[in-house]
Amino acid sequence: VLTQSPGTLSLSPGERATLSCRASHSVSSNFLAWYQQRPGQAPRLLIYGASSRATGIPDRFSGSGSGTDFTLTISRLEPEDFAVYYCQQYGNSRLTFGGGTKVEIK
Amino acid sequence: EVQLVESGGGVVRPGGSLRLSCAASGFTFEDFGMSWVRQAPGKGLEWVSGINWNGGSTDNADSVKGRFTIFRDNAKNSLYLEMNSLRVEDTALYFCARERPWGYFDQWGQGILVTVSS
After folding, report:
1. Closest to B68 measured CA to CA, from B45, B53, B89, B42
2. How far is A7 from chain B (nearest CA, A)?
3. Which of A11, A21, A62, B28 is the most buried (most CB within 10 A)?
4. How many helices, marked H, and strands, marked E, lie in chain A?
5. Do B45 and A43 touch (CB under 8 A)?
6. Could you list the pLDDT tens digit for every one of the 118 residues in chain B?
7. CB contact under 8 A, B61 and A42
8. Which residues of B touch A93 (CB under 8 A)?
9. B18 contacts B9 by C-beta, under 8 angstroms
């Protein structure tokens, strides 16, 4: 089970966002991905392998962590970053997502 | 440009059946595993079914095991999801997604809505 916190993060453009994803068991080989989903759109891959940015993702997005605790950091929020973010563990036959964190404009 | 386009959704009664399709273009389809991921209205993401590059290995979430079947036709660059014995709780937007090694998703379709209602 992946637990994301907080459920909602209220911040202003330009601020730093720190999102947490905690796993109930250690995630093997740091097989942890992050996705962004804007309203009415499909999810978009941001981070894989816990810390590797996907193609075309701005460097204000960074991922860190290992074992059971992972973090997605957005260094300075841009208007287009206000969205829902999901973590996902992979590497075994049961691919699971966290419940999501909504980043909203304060 | 990679494109994944889902089709086949609609409204169906509980106990009914539906087949979803996903047409892939812009990449070598047979080189990639594929999955279906769904999202119930206002809820989060749930992986549903996955298939390896040649269809020789498939897996399903416990919630759909025995009811849904994933398969592919590499000659037609297409992915499918056969859904039987549909339940109200299967109502969701269904996404087709391209898998990278070990199971994260780097490309997604726009999704197709399936509504199960009497």
Report:
1. B89
2. 12
3. A21
4. 0, 11
5. yes
6. 999 999 999 999 999 999 999 999 999 999 999 999 999 999 999 999 999 999 999 999 999 999 999 999 999 999 999 999 999 999 999 999 999 988 899 999 999 999 999 9
7. no
8. 59
9. yes
